[in-house]
Every structure is written in C-alpha cells, then in structure tokens.
Write a structure and sequence with these properties.
With 451 residues, the protein is of the alpha/beta class. The protein has helices at 2-10, 15-32, 38-58, 60-71, 76-85, 93-96, 154-160, 188-195, 222-227, 236-244, 271-280, 282-285, 305-314, 331-340, 346-358, 389-404, 409-423, 436-442; strands at 129-131, 166-168, 199-205, 229-235, 254-255, 258-263, 291-295, 299-301, 320-324, 378-386, 431-434, 443-445. The structure holds 2-acetamido-2-deoxy-beta-D-glucopyranose (3 copies).
C-alpha cells in the first residue's frame, strides 16, 4: 500500500518527491531478487489489489479528500496540477477531475510605482492596547511553570474581548525574575533589524516541515525589495536541513529575498502551535510595523506586497483580510473533518467545541443575508493586516484561543470574531474575508514536505 500511496503524491509536482518515489520503486525491485522478500512482495501486491477494489467501490473522491486533508498538502491548485500531470502518470484520471479549485482574477493596481496610502485610511476604532509582559502571579511560589502564553484566567479572557484601553495577554509573557525565558528567543541583531520594519512579509518553517520557497523575484517591485522586510522564521534544525540542501544564508543572513531569522527555545512542543506565534503575533514581533502579510510556508509569494496591501486593505477599507475556506463554512463541519482525519486529539477538540457552543457559537447560515462573514471557517494560510488596535486585539484573542485550546486555528476563528463583534456592538472591526480563489491567484501553492 505504501508504494501506491506514495505514487499518488509522486505524481504531484515536486521533483524531489518524485525522485524519492523512484528510489522506492527501485528498492522494491532490488528487494524482489532476494527470495526472503518474496512473501512481503506478495502481501504488498495483495494489499494493492484490495486497495484498488476499495477505490473502485467507494469512489476516488472520498479517498482523495482523505489524503488532501490528512496530509494538508494536496490543496486545490495541486488538484489541478494532478489532473494535468496524470495524463502522463498512471493515475485514475476521471476521478481526479471532481474537486478542482481555480484561481480567479484579482484586479491589482497596474503600477510600477509604489501605491500611495489613502489619506483617509487609518480611520479605524481607536483605543490603547498594552500587552502583559510579566504576570502578577507568583509563579515560583505556587510552583506554576511560566508559560509563553501566560496563565490567563477565564475572567481575564472574558475581559480581554473588550475593545477599550487595556492590557491583555498576547504571548511573550516572561517567567519570573532570574529564570530562563518562556521561549521564542531571537538574536539581538535580528531583533534590531525587525524593529526597523514598517511593512513585513513573514513566514515560518519549524521542525523541517517544509522547503524554502522564495518569493517570485520578478513579481516583486524594486520599491518593495528596498522597503519591505521579508522574514522567514526557522528553528535551528530547519536551518541545518536547509543548509544541507544547499540553501545557505549569505552574510546578510538572507536566502534570496528572505532574511532567515533563527528562533531558539521554542515555546511549545507542538511545532504547529509554535508556528502560530509568527502567524498571529506579527504586531508583537515587529513593533514598528504598520502592515504585515503572513504566508504559510506552503505558499510562494507571487505578487508584490504593496499591491496586496492596496488591494485587500486600502481599497476595501479593511484592517484585516483573510480568505474563506474553499469548501467548509460551518465550524460543525470543520470539527467533523478534523476528527475524521485525526487532525488532533479528539477529546481536546470536543472540549474546545463544547466551550464555544456553550458560549453561543452559532451554526453558519448561508441563507442569512445579514451574516457577518461569508464563512466561519477561514483558509488562514494568507493574511494581510494593518496594525490597528482592533486588528491587533483580534490577533491576540485568536492567539490566546490557540494557546488555551488546540492549535487548529480554523476552529477558533469564527468564534473569536463573533465574540469580539458581540462584545463591542458599536465598534467596527473591518475584516475583509475574500474568496479563496483570490488567494490562489496571488500565491503559488505547493504541498508541505513529505515526512
Ligand atoms: C485611552 O488611551 C488613550 C491614549 O493613551 C487616551 O488618550 C484616552 O484618553 C484613553 N481613553 C480612556 C477612555 O481612558
Ligand atoms: C544547531 O544545530 C547544529 C547541528 O545539529 C549544532 O552543531 C549547533 O550547535 C546548533 N546551534 C544552536 C544555536 O543550537
Ligand atoms: C487528549 O486531550 C485530553 C484533554 O485535553 C487529555 O486529557 C489527554 O491526555 C489527551 N490525550 C492524548 C493521547 O494526548
């Protein structure tokens, strides 16, 4: 079964994966010459036959969806890629055609110059948001382990949703005096550089989970090359692995447009959770930044960042932009899918979901003309934001949910947004949820590195 499954991935688009696949095939042939392996081979073939029958019976779509979500690598553009490449591969062609997601036209400003920020843009809800640096509890006396996310009580959590002058938990909570940091430690020089950034494009690879995909240089304007910080956060292991593959940072710590920033003392054992720190907390990591763009490592940036800010924020008068999920809009469906594909500990998912239901999370109603969002489930691999108080607050709140509950941020997005809105009925949070097909148009989608 393994070679067949790999075959499915191998046909996709990475030559590396394909090579791996070939190696695997050779290995099988080599092995077959050894009499002791014949029995194994027999079982593999039997299994493959059974597997084909299963596919024929239940339809490829089901199988395919399983792979797609489980691996989190076969996203829709890949589906298209598969159906093209499958002509030359031995793939069940017609069944692959079912789930296709295409990019759609994004009307970007046609300009060689940097777009100019509209004078009226920063007219968003104003308040002063501060962040908890050190908690007021005596952690060492009570034998409480200091945590990066702190120890927010439910009462503090409730309070934190108010869009008023206040101090909230937002990661980077230090331990008590004289004890090692709670994590996400950065080099002084990197920190100094990051402090200068006013517009940031950032991404991360922790735990060698992906390849390094450089932004398409010819699509990035000279202005952006000179004025936008492109930051790729990695851990040491990832850096070592990238270096072995020939991606070595130069004397300016850069690989192409990416400046590589090594994070040590990772705050969570769960690499996905660690990845949420740069994803959500760019306003903490880049204190001078006015705008930031987040890009999952599976995406290659294929559009100039200033044009993206113009398109998603300025033109829409939005302070936060994220795309909707390409198939799921209701958190109920998302929960089911997460469990079906064993994305996370089921008990933990249930705890989170029950908590949200008891706090009024509604089902998504597509027929409601006044629904506050086109979907309660985002495709959060691409986020554009202005660092306004409301946008920063939302980022902190969303991060706190991921810190408290599961790292599956698609489960907490809708709840966090709706609760923020409900708590502050007279204060607008200008969130623009755009179509997933737009995300496909401005980035190039890959799959994550095969484990
Ligand atoms: C909130 O903070 C701002 C800036 O620090 C200040 O000007 C304003 O008066 C404060 N508002 C309230 C209600 O305290
Ligand atoms: C990074 O990893 C390499 C290889 O495992 C090791 O030699 C080096 O000391 C590590 N550096 C840090 C800062 O941990
Ligand atoms: C799953 O989550 C529950 C509740 O958070 C926890 O008690 C349990 O130990 C977890 N199980 C595993 C296998 O991690």
């Amino acid at each position: 079964m393994l070679p067949e499954r790999r075959g499915v991935f191998g046909g996709l688009d990475q030559s590396k994966v394909a090579d791996q696949n070939n190696d695997y095939g050779l290995l099988a042939v080599r092995r077959s010459r050894r009499p002791g392996r014949m029995r194994l081979l027999f079982w593999i073939f039997s299994f493959a036959a059974l597997f084909s029958i299963c596919i024929a019976t239940f339809g490829f779509k089901m199988f395919f969806h399983g792979v797609e979500e489980h691996q989190n690598i076969l996203t829709s553009t890949d589906v298209k890629a598969v159906s093209v490449e499958s002509k030359t591969m031995e793939q069940p062609k017609k069944k692959l055609r079912r789930a296709r997601f295409y990019p759609c036209k994004v009307e970007l400003q046609d300009s060689a110059e940097a777009p100019v920020e509209p004078k009226t843009f920063w007219k968003f809800v104003k308040f002063s948001l501060q962040y908890i640096v050190r908690e007021n509890i005596e952690t060492h006396v009570n034998h409480i382990t200091p945590r990066f996310g702190g120890h927010q009580t439910l009462e503090e959590r409730e309070q934190s949703f108010n869009a008023v002058n206040q101090t909230v938990h937002c990661g980077f909570v230090k331990g008590f005096e004289g004890v090692s940091n709670t994590g996400f430690d950065l080099d002084k020089e990197d920190k100094m550089y990051m402090n200068t950034c006013t517009v940031v494009v950032s991404s991360c690879i922790f735990g060698s989970s992906d390849f390094l995909r450089r932004p398409t240089s010819k699509m990035i304007s000279q202005y952006s090359k000179e004025n936008v910080c492109f930051i790729m956060f990695v851990d040491n292991d990832t850096l070592v692995k990238l270096s072995k593959e020939g991606s070595v940072p130069d004397e300016k710590r850069s690989i192409g447009l990416w400046r590589i920033v090594v994070v040590s003392n990772l705050p969570y054992d769960d690499m996905r959770k660690t990845g949420k720190v740069p994803k959500f907390l760019s306003h903490r990591l880049f204190p001078s930044a006015r705008y930031s763009i987040w890009l999952d490592s599976k995406l290659r940036l294929h559009t100039d960042p200033m044009l993206l800010i113009e398109h998603f924020l300025w033109r829409n008068k939005a302070e936060y932009a994220i795309s909707n999920h390409y198939t799921r809009h209701c958190v109920w469906d998302e929960v089911q899918q997460n469990k079906r594909l064993n994305k996370y500990n089921h008990t933990a998912i249930d705890q989170q979901f029950l908590f949200y239901q008891s706090d009024g999370l509604p089902k998504f109603d597509p027929s409601d003309p006044n629904k506050p969002l086109p979907s309660y489930v985002p495709e959060g691999s691409f986020i554009v934001r202005a660092h306004t108080p409301m946008s920063n607050l939302f980022s902190c709140l969303w991060f706190n949910e991921v810190d408290r509950f599961t790292s599956r941020d698609q489960l907490s997005f809708g709840y966090t947004f709706l609760k923020l809105k409900r708590t502050n009925p007279d204060k607008r949070f200008a969130l623009h949820m755009f179509k997933d097909c737009e995300r496909r148009a401005i980035t190039k989608l890959f799959h994550h590195r095969n484990p």
